[in-house]
Write a structure and sequence with these properties.
The chain is an all-alpha fold. It contains 14 helices and no strands. Helix 10 packs antiparallel against helix 11. The longest helix has 26 residues.
Length: about 280
């Protein structure tokens, strides 16, 4: 246990800025060019591939995997499904999988819209949308041995395969794009893999930036933060913009509390991933 803790503690030192400049920012810059390139070339027949990769990376990987399953322990699932889901989560546009989960749960949810919240828009829209990723202090504040022990007990940070995904996320992301280019052409690499990564990052970034502005939506529940729901945004983000519902019932499998609140991630958990009783 001590060796694992020392290894993980050392990994999280001084990673934020390097990850931001080598991964998150390039994903944003390239991502904003993808749709214009697709339109210029008339490559709309690749749009289906873009939607598939966004579903795999953004819904299965990020919304269900890192967020609801690992972050909030909303359900149980067979190990083989957990493996597939966590593999998809590597293509998230943010970076290594371990810190996102731990910063989200021990930072954002415990301090939402207060001091200690890593990405509250109270510190500015661009901070919440993008630049908080480069702040090493959030790694240092919210990833300690107590938090690590919790995820060791759940078999996350001490799993050899998940450690490989976490430690090599840059090589996996760039390598997958390159391999897709070599095997299937630049359109598959750009419109498929790169778009899926960018769309997943945009999902997470817009939820954190917009879903804590009162003017952006409505509340079903009175919470101690500024979280709101947005029905249209929920469709585009696989249910993640039903954010007020989520902050009230953070470990629920579904964020929907009304038929008009569409939460596709909740459907994926209910019908595809969770263990059958």
């Amino acid at each position: 246990m001590k060796r694992i803790l020392n290894s993980l503690t050392n990994f999280f030192k001084d990673k934020a800025k390097a990850n931001f400049w080598l991964y998150t920012l390039p994903v944003q810059l390239v991502g904003w060019c993808i749709i214009p390139i697709m339109a210029y070339n008339g490559d709309w027949n690749y749009l289906w591939l873009s939607l598939i990769t966004y579903f795999l990376f953004g819904c299965v990987g990020m919304a269900v995997g890192l967020h609801r399953y690992w972050g909030h322990a909303c359900t149980e699932m067979p190990k083989w499904k957990e493996r597939i889901m966590t593999t998809c989560s590597v293509f998230n546009g943010y970076g290594a999988i371990f810190p996102w989960v731990m910063i989200h749960t021990s930072g954002h949810h415990k301090n939402a819209d207060k001091e200690g919240d890593p990405h509250s828009p109270l510190q500015g829209f661009w901070h919440a949308f993008l630049t908080w990723h480069r702040e090493q202090k959030y790694f240092d504040q919210h990833i300690d041995r107590r938090v690590l022990v919790t995820y060791i007990r759940r078999g996350f940070v001490n799993d050899k395969y998940y450690q490989f995904l976490n430690d090599n996320h840059l090589a996996i992301n760039y390598g997958t794009v390159l391999l897709a280019w070599l095997l299937f052409g630049w359109q598959v690499a750009l419109y498929g893999i790169a778009f899926g990564i960018w769309a997943t990052l945009m999902n997470t970034s817009t939820v954190t930036a917009l879903s804590h502005y009162s003017w952006f939506g409505y509340k079903n529940f009175e919470t101690k933060d500024n979280s709101v729901n947005n029905r249209v945004g929920a469709i585009l983000t696989w249910g993640e913009m039903l954010h007020n519902n989520h902050h009230r019932y953070w470990n629920a499998q579904s964020n929907s509390h009304h038929w008009s609140e569409i939460d596709m991630s909740g459907w994926v958990i209910k019908y595809l991933l969770k263990k059958k009783s």
